[in-house]
Each structure stands twice: as C-alpha cells, then as structure tokens.
C-alpha cells in the first residue's frame, strides 16, 4: 500500500488538481470543531430591592405570585400596576436558585447566611449548599423559611405582616402534610390574608391558552409529569410521573464525563455538567440510526475534510477548561553560553576523574604484576612442595593459575597503554596448540600417576576440541550470515518485487508473534486460565524441596507421600505475586527483542522499499484499528495516533510538558455520543437503569385512558413545558414517537411553551387576579377552623374528578 499524501484535493486550501497547498499551515481537523468555554459558577450580583412603601403596591391587595420550583424560585407582584386589573407583569421581580448556604467567618466570628446565587460566591460557601427540596417536595422547612424571608425582603415588604394574597406553585401530587406545613408557615409566620396553590405545568398551559382538552408534558429538575386536562381541568387520577429530570440527566452526563476522562486535570463540577447538558445536548430524531452511524470507522484525518466526516465527528464539540500556560524560561545568549561552558567543564571534570581512577587501577595492576613475577622467582629457590604451599597461600591452586593471572594482567596493561597513546591494541596471538602426549598411551604402560595425568589430559583435550568446534561453528555462522546478506542485497537489486514481498512476510510474521505474545500474556495474567494454571504447576514443582504428591520416584514408579504435608504453593495471593514477578522477568527481555526485531525490519522497509510508507507501519496499523476509540476521546482526527504504538516515547518527552498547545488540548473535553445519549433517557429509561416506561409510552397510556373523542382532542393539543424540555429536537421527537403509536386517522400536534422559564409564573399571575383565585383560596379563618391540611380544589390544582 502506497503512503497517503499529506495534502490532497479534499483538504481545505488544496487546489482542484491535487497539488499541495501553498500555505505552510498543516490541516488540523480540530480547527473545524466548535469550541465552548467551560461555564463557571455565576458571579453574585446584587438583587434589586423594591421600594415597597413608596410603590403603588403599598396598602393594596395585589397578589404576590411565587413559583416555588425545586431549581429556581421566581417571585413578584401579579400586576405591574395595581390600579389596572389587566396590567399583568411581564416577568417576575426576582428569580434565583432555590438554595441556601451558611458560612462561618472565623476571623470576624461571624456566621453569614447566603441565599440564591450568592451561594456560589466561593468554595467555602459552595461546600455547605442546602436545598429545601427532597426531589420536588419541600422537606427542609428551616431552609424554606429562610428563602421566603429573603424573597419578601427583596420585594420590599418591611411591614409586620404580608398584607397580600399569595399564589404559590407546587408539584403534582404534593403531599397534604407538605401543603399543611406551608399553610402553617404562611398564616403563622407571615400572616397572609389568603393563599392558593396550583400545579406549575397547568399554570404554564393556562398562560399559553392551550385549550380545554390537552395533554400537558412537563419535565423539570426532579421529575417529568404527564397531566391530561379535560374541560380546562387537570385530571390527577389519569396523570403519570417519570422519575427523571434535569438533575438526574446532568448527573448522568457528569458520570459519563468522569468515566470517559478519569485523569482529566481539572475538576468538572455538577454546575458545569448542567450547563453542558442544557447548551450542547439535543434529542435525536432516530436514536438507533444515529448511534449506528456514530460507530462507523472514521477515515484518516489526513485524507478528508469536514464534509465527509462521520456522524460522530460531525456531532463532536469541544469544552475548553481554563489552564495556565507553562511558558519555558527565556534565557539570554550569555546565559546559554555560560550554561554550555558549565556543562563542558562538568564533563571535563568527570572525564579527568575517570582517567585518574583508571590510572590508579593500572598502577595497582603493575604492583600486582611485580609481586607475581617475584613470586615466580621462588620456584628455583625452594623445594616444589614449599613453592606450591606459597602459591596456595596467595590463592593459586597451581603454577598454571599463576601464569594465567600474569598473562591477564600484562594484557590489561598493554591495552591501557595503547589507549593512553591513542593507538589500537592488537592482541598477540601467542597461543600454541597444546599437546596431550599421554592420550594415546595405553594404561598398561603407565603407572598410577601417569593414569591420572592421562585422564586429566583427556578432559583438557575434550575441552580444547569443543572450543575449536565452537570457534569453527561461529566462523561458519558468520560466513553464512554474510552470504545471506549478500544474497538479500543481490535479490533487492535484481528482483525488488520478490525481495519486498519476502521482507513484508517477515514483517507480518514479527507482528503476529507480538500479537500472540500479547494474547498469551493476557491469558497468563488471568489465574483461572489453563495456561496460567499449567505454569503455576510447573513453578510449584520447581519450588518444592521434595517430590510432590503423586510425582515420579527415582526408580520410575509413582508413589504417594505418606505423613508429609501437601504442598500448598499457589493457594495464597502472595504466591501469585511471585508468579507474576517471574513472568515479568521472563517476558520483558523477549518482548524487547521482538520489538527490536520489528523496528529493524520496519527501518529497512522504510529506507529501501518505496512502496512502504509511514501509514504501513505497526504504529499506523494500531492507530487505524483504534481510530474510532481515538475519535470518541479526542474528536476528529483522533489526536496523536502514535500514542498507541508500544514504542512511542512522545509522551515522555519533557518538551511536550511545556508546549502550550499540548496543555490546551489536555484541558479539553470532547462530547459526541453523550449529546444524544443523555436526552434519550426520557424515551429509553433503561439506559440509566430506570425500570419505567418511556415518555412516549407514558403519553400513549394516559390518552388511552379516555374515550376516543377526548383522546383525539388531546392528541391534537399536546403541550410541552419545563426547563428540561428545552433540548433541540424535543418536540419533533415527541411528535414522531407518539405519531408512530397512533392510528393514521388521528391527528397529532405538539406545541411548546413560549417561555419555558417564566410561563408558569406568568400563568399564575394572570390566574391570581381572577375570581376563581379568591373563591378557591384558603383564608386564615379556613385554616383555623378546618385545619392546616384543608384544601379547596380548582381547575389548575389537578382535580381528582
């Protein structure tokens, strides 16, 4: 396979004839991927405070509307002008997160109470955040009272009591106990004249005028509800709830990111995950098809432009987290020269020290040589027994050992002198062929000492002959290797195709051996595999001091041990640790040789074979095999493909640590599959481990609990509201999924709230100035006479009937 060109006609900036672009800037696929900065915690801002006593609301009965959501609280007066009953407020006066935090300032010995967005002020305040809600039901009443105090204070109400009726939203199926505690708080703490409650999604439908018969689908922070309305009234008995909302979805996205990037240098906060979910996730119109398309193997990033990207590459977005550039220290020319001079001086000192040590060593050898020569002179001055005793005292068994030591020291001294003079040392071949005169003499002609000497000479001759054979075999092996290299070179010159195919086969065989070694290594790492068990048995047999139970006896039979304990080597994890250590020690050298052989063949092919290019190397093959995974993690192009190669050292290069581009890329998250996977849980809750029906199934179940005429009117009037329904493509997917489960004669229409954030508050504001609000409101007298859990039902409170 020919190497792929670096530039081609499909790349941005390339000419139509395929010539290379004149621009020197290389093609970077990630330059075409949208980059989004990671959201930071909102900065605390001063909340506007209404001048209540000087405003038109003072001493009026203008209702106060509180949309008490589990994620955000919105509050304000229902009318912009109390004197005009139809002057509905366009938006709430205050809106902030429904959270509190207590912070202790130890230096000032002061405890600060933070509410709303102020809880994100710093790390200390964020660590003690509390919410009044458990799921979407109020349970923390001390926190709820603090939030309401803060809300009424921002509305400027500084009187002893709140002299305005209150209209408050609540969740579907709010427990009577929770509503009773809220009544107690309103009438006892704030002394409001009357209070009324309604479901937030029905208030939103009321604001958008969806009609009397409708199917309201609302997804908020903690849950998703489907409420049918008949004749303008919500029917609680036919409503359904799905335990999935924005909080669970953002938590799922956060866990997917943590699983995808376990070593990410920055901490991804739940707040950032929520912003990613709301800004970047979208609902797939056909999830199965899109996922199958995202599993397509991307082409090489060198050979295509964004117009031919796979679905995964097209859906990829980058979230850039803040980072600090590791700028290398800038040094002047004088500093660099001084540093080079210091390095040179240090090297000279090291070389001089090495020379001195070598010189001292040689002086010691010269002293030893003089001593041994003097020792040899004693041979003619004393008897042989005394001379041998002297040699034994100096550590020599015989005269030959002394001669061998003298020869060795003389050779070392000659090599040292030659090196000092800068000459090449040539070893004198003074070795003469030894003679063995007694080998062929019959034993009958020799005395006892002669027989012993004959045996000694026979052993020495066998060793000498073995060395000669080994030397001859080595010379023959070298000659054959030179002939093979010459034949290989002749074949490369005269028949390059055959030479290339043969070397390619050797290259493939080397790769297959590496793969087989990896496979065997994986099998041996599993102690339950057959290969690991067999190897452990071999190690056990070697480790045992005596023959194991059932082992072969010296006579060849098999005998069971009696009275001995059974060998239990391998029963403990420590034994397997020894096994792994032995395995690593055995395999490391062979693995290194295998990669070295592969690298040598690869170098020859790259140098001598014009048809073998960088894209044919083992690293490139691995990169192609893992390109889908690389695209999932690193976006289009797959990042650095060479990082998969086992011999890659780019990550160990210290210069990369200071590269600003590498640091920037290290602080990037890539979202692609997650963008459709997280919203898909609403239709397939099993993705997140929920044993519930999907949203389309819930809607179909709800509408089928009514007669055919009512069902037809509901399907023509499906209303979507709630912050968690703001995904791109949500309405289209809901329409297509419900349309697929209904007869072709039934018309289906899906509409969305105009303002998902404030429509519930706006609808409650419009409804609170009407007669129905006052007729169904709970007064202080009703609270005292009928109990705190007493409640009047109305059209927007999800009636039982």
Automatic annotation (TrEMBL):
Entry annotated with the keyword Translocase: no
Keywords carried by this UniProt record: Coiled coil, DNA damage, Nucleus, Transcription, Transcription regulation
Start and end residues of each stretch annotated as Disordered: 1-30, 541-575
Subcellular location: Nucleus
Protein's UniProt keywords contain Nucleus: yes
Residue spans of biased composition, Acidic residues class: 566-575
GO terms under biological process: DNA damage response
SUPFAM superfamilies per the UniProt record, alphabetical: Actin-like ATPase domain (SSF53067)
Domain of life: Eukaryota
Principal location listed in the UniProt entry: nucleus
Comp. bias intervals (Low complexity): 13-24
Pfam families, sorted: Actin (PF00022)
GO CC annotation, single: nucleus
Family: Belongs to the actin family.
Name used for this protein in its record: Actin
Organism: Kalmanozyma brasiliensis (strain GHG001) (Yeast)
Lineage of producing organism: Eukaryota, Fungi, Dikarya, Basidiomycota, Ustilaginomycotina
């Amino acid at each position: 396979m020919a190497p792929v060109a670096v530039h081609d006609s499909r790349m941005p900036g390339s000419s139509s004839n395929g010539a290379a672009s004149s621009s020197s800037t290389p093609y970077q696929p990630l330059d075409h991927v949208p980059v989004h900065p990671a959201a930071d915690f909102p900065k605390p801002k001063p909340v506007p405070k209404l001048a209540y006593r000087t405003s038109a609301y003072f001493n009026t009965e203008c209702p106060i509307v509180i949309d008490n959501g589990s994620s955000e609280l919105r509050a304000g007066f229902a009318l912009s002008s109390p004197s005009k009953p139809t002057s509905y407020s366009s938006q709430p006066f205050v809106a902030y997160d429904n959270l509190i935090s207590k912070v202790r300032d130890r230096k000032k010995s002061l405890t600060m109470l933070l509410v709303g967005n102020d809880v994100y002020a710093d790390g200390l305040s964020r660590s003690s955040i509390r919410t009044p809600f458990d799921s979407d039901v109020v349970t923390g009443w001390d926190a709820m009272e603090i939030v309401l105090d803060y809300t009424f204070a921002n509305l400027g109400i500084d009187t002893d009591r709140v002299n305005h009726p209150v209209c408050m939203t609540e969740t579907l199926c709010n427990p009577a106990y929770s509503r009773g505690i809220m009544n107690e708080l309103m009438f006892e703490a704030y002394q409001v004249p009357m209070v009324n409650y309604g479901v937030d999604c029905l208030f939103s439908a009321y604001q958008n005028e969806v009609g009397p018969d409708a199917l309201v689908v609302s997804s908020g922070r903690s849950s998703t509800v489907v409420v049918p309305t008949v004749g303008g009234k919500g029917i609680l008995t036919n409503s359904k709830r799905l335990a999935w909302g924005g909080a669970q979805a953002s938590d799922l996205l956060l866990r997917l990111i943590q699983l995808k990037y376990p070593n990410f240098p920055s901490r991804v906060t739940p707040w950032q995950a929520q912003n990613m979910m709301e800004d970047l996730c979208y609902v797939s119109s056909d999830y199965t098809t899109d996922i199958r398309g995202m599993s397509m193997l991307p082409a090489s990033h060198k050979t295509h432009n964004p117009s031919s990207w796979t679905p995964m590459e097209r859906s990829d977005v980058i979230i850039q987290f803040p980072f600090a550039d590791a700028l290398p220290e800038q040094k002047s020319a004088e500093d660099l020269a001084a540093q080079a001079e210091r390095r040179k001086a240090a090297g000279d000192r090291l070389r001089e020290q090495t020379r001195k040590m070598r010189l001292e060593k040689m002086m010691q050898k010269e002293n030893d040589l003089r001593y041994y020569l003097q020792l040899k002179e004693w041979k003619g001055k004393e008897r042989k027994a005394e001379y041998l005793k002297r040699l034994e005292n100096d550590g020599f068994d015989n005269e030959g050992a002394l001669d061998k030591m003298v020869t060795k020291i003389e050779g070392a001294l000659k090599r040292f002198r030659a090196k000092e003079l800068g000459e090449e040392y040539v070893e004198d071949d003074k070795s003469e062929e030894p003679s063995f005169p007694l080998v062929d003499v019959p034993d009958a002609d020799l005395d006892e000492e002669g027989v012993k000497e004959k045996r000694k000479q026979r052993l020495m001759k066998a060793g000498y002959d073995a060395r000669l054979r080994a030397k001859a075999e080595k010379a023959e092996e070298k000659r054959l290797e030179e002939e093979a290299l010459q034949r290989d070179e002749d074949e490369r010159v005269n028949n390059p195709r055959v030479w290339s195919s043969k070397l390619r086969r050797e290259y493939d065989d080397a790769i297959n051996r590496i793969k087989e070694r990896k496979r065997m290594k994986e099998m041996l790492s599993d102690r339950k595999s057959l290969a690991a068990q067999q190897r452990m048995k071999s190690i056990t047999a070697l480790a045992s001091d005596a023959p194991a139970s059932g082992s072969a006896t010296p006579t060849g039979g098999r005998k069971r041990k009696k009275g001995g304990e059974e060998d239990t080597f391998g029963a403990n994890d420590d034994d397997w640790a020894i096994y792994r250590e032995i395995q690593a020690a055995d395999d490391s050298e062979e693995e290194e040789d295998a990669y070295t052989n592969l690298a040598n063949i690869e170098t020859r092919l790259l140098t001598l074979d014009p048809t073998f290019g960088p894209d044919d190397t083992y690293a490139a093959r691995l990169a192609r095999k893992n390109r889908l995974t690389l695209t999932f993690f690193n976006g289009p192009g797959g990042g650095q493909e060479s990082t998969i190669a086992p011999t890659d050292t780019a990550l160990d290069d210290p210069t990369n640590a200071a590269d600003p581009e590498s640091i920037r890329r290290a602080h990037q998250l890539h979202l692609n599959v997650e963008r459709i996977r997280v919203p898909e849980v609403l239709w397939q809750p099993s993705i997140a481990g929920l044993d519930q029906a999907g949203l389309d199934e819930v809607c179909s179940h709800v509408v089928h609990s009514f007669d055919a005429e009512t069902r037809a009117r509901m399907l023509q009037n499906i209303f979507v509201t709630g912050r968690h329904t703001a995904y791109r493509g949500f309405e289209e997917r809901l329409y297509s999924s419900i349309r697929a489960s209904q007869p072709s004669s039934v018309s289906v229409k899906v509409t969305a709230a105009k303002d998902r954030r404030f429509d519930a508050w706006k609808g409650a504001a419009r409804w609170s100035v009407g007669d129905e609000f006052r007729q169904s409101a709970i007064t202080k007298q009703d609270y005292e006479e009928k109990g705190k859990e007493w409640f009047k039902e109305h059209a927007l409170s999800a009636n039982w009937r």
